[in-house]
Design brief:
Shape: globular
Number of domains: 2
Number of helices: 9
């Protein structure tokens, strides 16, 4: 009798396992379907965005799913096409890097400040006693205070690195690389042009509501080539500083749920690219004087968020601001104009709260 019950129990257990495997299989198929659906929708939205490109834009030159990972990649986004290769690949990246290294290591100090502010939240995922964590948080707070003083130098930079050792494995960038930058100016220049460039630029533009604003790279869903528009008086923007440079970045989201993220991403990218353009516009007119016409002093940023579905007509209008004001680290303010589009009946249309669902 006991043996029969054991066999029955084993059969029941095996059936339960089979059911679990079936459920997992169904879930995997559903996940695969959702992923495929997302790829298709994003592709449709991308194609419709291309159809909406202005006549003066060569759509084949738009950057799609482009990653900002270095000074060279940033330069490629914020300078007009057709410039001399030496300026694009040597002079401009060098000038952006120089700006990040100046002012007592502007870029490295920004990364260290951002990481120090994140220490209390990072300690939550680190093993250790409450007393040790409290001491580490205090050390980070003291190091941050000293680093933010006007006369902060090498001593404060080293202390900041020491204060980050408590959560080195959780930092968004390598603590070893930061220590190398503090020790060796040449190494700092090399890293700020390459691996730490985006970390520096994002740290210089903090994101509200986050512990750390540092990111090793940023991805742009779609970016139109920089356009040089004529000045209001009819002068050509490429021949003097009276024209306007226009840079439009586009974020693609599957549904309304992605709106807050898309809006924040647009603001972050706008800040980084706007700052980089401003730095290069000012520095290249001196470094490359006579080699190329000066870039327009005025930059107009345009942000577009395109949704694949669910343009909710009941959304609060405050969630669709017509512009976002961006203060950049080169002491400029940009009012990035925003537009919101949603895919309806196979075409992108403006999304406004009063628009009924399609």
């Amino acid at each position: 009798m006991a043996e029969a019950e054991a066999v029955a129990a084993q059969l029941v257990l095996q059936k339960l396992r089979n059911i679990q495997n079936d459920v997992r299989g169904i879930q995997q198929k559903q996940d695969g379907f959702v992923e495929t659906q997302g790829i298709i929708v994003e592709s449709l939205v991308g194609s419709e965005l291309r159809e909406r490109d202005p006549p003066d834009v060569d759509s084949s030159k738009a950057r799609r799913a482009f990653k900002l990972q270095s000074a060279d990649s940033v330069v490629a986004c914020v300078l007009p096409q057709g410039l001399p290769p030496r300026l694009l690949h040597e002079d401009a990246p060098a000038q952006l890097t120089a700006w990040l290294t100046e002012d007592r290591g502007r870029g490295i100090r920004a990364i260290l400040r951002s990481c120090l502010r994140a220490v209390p939240s990072l300690l939550g995922a680190v093993a250790g006693s409450a007393e040790d964590k409290a001491a580490a948080a205090t050390e980070a707070e003291v190091a941050l205070t000293e680093l933010e003083k006007a006369g902060a130098g090498q001593k404060e930079l080293r202390a900041a690195c020491d204060a980050l050792k408590c959560c080195a494995a959780r930092l968004p960038v390598s603590l070893k690389l930061l220590e190398d930058c503090v020790k060796d100016p040449k190494k700092a220049e090399e890293l700020l042009r390459g691996e730490l460039c985006i970390a520096a630029l994002t740290s210089l533009h903090p994101v509200s509501g986050t512990a750390s604003s540092t990111a090793k790279e940023l991805e742009i869903d779609r970016l139109l080539p920089l356009r040089l528009l004529p000045a209001a008086d009819g002068a050509n923007g490429t021949s003097n500083n009276g024209g306007i440079a226009l840079l439009e970045l586009q974020e693609i989201k599957l549904s309304t749920a992605g709106l807050p993220t898309g809006r924040d991403q647009a603001a972050r990218l706008g800040s980084v690219l706007g700052c980089s353009y401003g730095v290069l516009q000012e520095r290249l007119q001196h470094a490359a004087a006579g080699a190329v016409p000066p870039l327009p002093a005025k930059l107009r940023l345009q942000g577009t968020i395109a949704l694949g579905k669910d343009g909710d007509p009941n959304v609060d209008a405050a969630q669709l601001p017509p512009q976002q004001t961006l203060k950049t680290a080169d002491d400029k303010v940009h009012d990035m104009q925003m537009q919101y589009l949603v895919l309806a009946k196979g075409a992108l249309v403006p999304w406004v709260p009063s628009r009924p669902k399609q």
